[in-house]
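seq as requested:
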Amino acid sequence: MNTSMKRIVILGFDGALATAITGVTDLFSMAGVSWNRIQNQHIQRLFDVKIASEQAQAIQCINGMKLQADLCFAEILQDDLLIVPTIGAPIFDTLNRNPKLVQLLQKADRRHQLIAGNCTGNFFLAEAGILNGKLATTHWGFQQLLTEHFPLVKLNADQLITRDQHVYCAGGGLAWFDLGLHLIERFYGFETAIQSAKSFVIDYRRDSQLSYSLMKIGKPHHDVLVQKAQDWIEQHYQQQFNLDTLASYLNVTVRTLIRRFKAALNMPPNQYLQSIRIEAARKRLEETEQALEVIMHEVGYSDPSSFRRLFHKKTGLNPIEYRRRFSRRF
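struct tokens:
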């Protein structure tokens, strides 16, 4: 191996998402290769990537694919980077079946070794205790589960990539692209990272997964009054109305309405209304070619600047960017 190459070890386990292993292997292995070939430049591999498993046994991925490991956990040296891929199988069953991987992470953490987790693979980092008191992210669909089981983690699932000291976390299942590019930049600079992104034809420096998440408009509850209010809002969100109108319809005071809403949904009625309107705008941007001004009025807004500001706050993108990324191809 070229001594100047950075060494990366992907920690494999049964039930891993195959692409979170094979994809990141391809990305790192082709850094300094793909772009150079395209440009007819000298090829220089920048990373040596290995797959490790507990006993160097083949890994049975969640899709049925078997991947051969290059080495066992005991053979891992103080490598430049350890990566934990996405858990595709039931999360806590997988954690319970892999105590040696957890111990390996704890040992690496004590050495202040560079560690990165992807998506639900960050549950391994949390289980090892190395995310306690640290900023972290995970897939937006599993943030509540991680928070419930590991309350000491400073979780910010809106972020696609987090770094706290020597520990990196990536959000969604395919965020290993973003994580890999980020780490290529760390090791070899921005120019090499952007060249890798261009050769793979992928965006670089996405920083949020807000626009990929489902709108968390309301948690399950058993308050009949609040459910009735939700139904009314969902039928009338396009209209201009105030809380007095809604409270009168429900035959309660505005104060009671706000109190019941907060107790049931952990948000006031106005915030719920905004979420419903933004969700409706998202769907129109995805599914129609309507002009932005038309969509804005159809979902109940009259001020373009406030609509754009709120849309960006909820999704992490402005409406034009959102349509460009998520619209159907007509």
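The first helix runs from residue 19 to 29.
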